[in-house]
Amino acid sequence: MTVDGRDVGAFRRFYEVKFGVRREELEFPAGMGLEEARVFMAREHAEVRADGLGLVDGDTWLGVAWLDWWLVGNTDTVDVELAVAPAYRRRGVATKLLDAAIERARADGRRIVSGTNVAGDPVTGESPGTAFAAARGFVKKHAELHQVAELPLNDVVEQPVDGYEIVQWREHTPDEWLEQFVELLSGMSEDVPTGERTSEAVRWTPELVRDAEDRRIAQGRFTYTTAAVHTASGELAAYTQMGGTPETPDRLNQYDTYVRRTHRGNRLGVAVKGPNLRALQAGVSLPAVLHTWNAPENAPMIAVNTKLGFRPVAQRTMWERTLL
Ligand SMILES: CC(C)(COP(=O)(O)OP(=O)(O)OC[C@H]1O[C@@H](n2cnc3c(N)ncnc32)[C@H](O)[C@@H]1OP(=O)(O)O)[C@@H](O)C(=O)NCCC(=O)NCCS
Asked: Which of 125, 130, 247, 294 pairs with 164 at a CA distance of 20 to 30 A?
């Protein structure tokens, strides 16, 4: 059956399988809360549309698939996340869901099915999900180390950089920074390591930023942003974002961290992350786990995180299958 987020009862059953599997697979499960995810699926967004599939036997939900259909960048790709309740594995449930997703992808003119295995071993990256992906013709394209920090951290590193000032904001990017923030978001999309993935950079616009902000608010999310401004030129040089939702107070996320190309090598990563972490810790209920993911080749970012108090807990791998 298909799920669209508007039928609250059906979405709850769908979510129970999806998040139940994450809880089962990961010591530190990450992901959207029930309402956060439902609103994401139910609403129209500028750059992505999401829906789901459930394989249901009578009143029992055996497995589910979450589908993200990109509308800006990667418009020939559909992302599929499969989850099968542990009691019903190795009976072809995921294969049936994947076949249904592929049929829909073809009907929508998509060329690539991609999927992420979130629960890989921190060193080898392997999991039942990677065995399934390999068995069903997917090719591994990229990997990211999943690190967590258990908050509160008592000594948050504070390392200001001469010549730069810190500015902070919450749910809305101040108008005075919007144009420059759009440039940094586009730069992030171009520069973030994506390995061998088929990945088209997103050209951000002020409208897309406002749409994403409105969506986060509708989902019940809060966001903390810290940016560094180059005092002499007034240029926005770096930013970092963290956030979560009161629905799942124990789970917080480190989102993007980006330093403009012309300002790299000045330790701006730590300079923005430290104050952002301090603001986050002051504003949320603790204890909580802060999650982040980075490509192993992004060693400087992993080093910054380790310095701040993060440690590795899993590896997620991204897979693709090209439809013939
Ligand atoms: C990965 C997952 C979705 C597979 O679900 P499933 O319904 O058991 O998969 P299927 O029965 O369709 O398996 C198809 C084939 O994949 C391979 N496979 C699946 N699970 C495997 C495992 N644990 N070990 C080795 N091979 C496995 C086998 O080749 C299997 O065929 P076989 O049973 O005839 O040997 C399920 O284990 C799961 O929910 N894992 C956690 C979430 C996850 O990793 N999702 C994938 C992210 S997209």
From this structure: 294
Q: If you compute the radius of gyration of the chain from its CA atoms, what whole number of angstroms results?
A: 20
The per-residue pLDDT for 179 is 98
Instruction: Report CA dihedral (299, 303, 305, 310) to the nearest 10 degrees.
Output: 110
- pLDDT at position 151 is 97
Domain boundaries, the chain: 2-144, 151-313
CA geometry: angle 127, 131, 137, nearest 5 deg: 140
List, for residues 216-248, the tens digit of each pLDDT value.
Answer: 999 999 999 999 999 999 999 999 999 999 999
Task: Report pTM.
Answer: 0.90
Ligand 1 probe mutation, 90, 114, 118, 130, most atoms within 8 A of CB: 90
pLDDT for residue 198 is more than 90: no
pLDDT (mean) for 34-58: 94
Average pLDDT over residues 93-103: 98
User: Residues enclosing ligand 1, CB less than 6 A?
Assistant: 21, 25, 63, 81-84, 89-95, 115, 117, 119, 127-129, 131-132, 135
Two structure tokens written together for 16: 């129970």
Domain spanning 2-144: which CATH class is it, in words? alpha beta
Distance 137 CA to ligand 1 centre (A): 13
Region 151-313: CATH code: 3.40.630.30
Exposure on the CB side of residue 61, measured as CA atoms within 13 A: 25
Instruction: Please tell me the distance between residue 181's alpha carbon and the centre of ligand 1 in angstroms.
Output: 41
Ligand 1 nearest atom to the CA of residue 117, by list position:
47
According to DSSP, residue 60 is labeled E
Ligand 1 atom with minimal separation from the 93 CA: 7
More confident residue, 182 or 196: 182
Residue to mutate (ligand 1; options 77, 132, 318; most atoms within 8 A of CB): 132
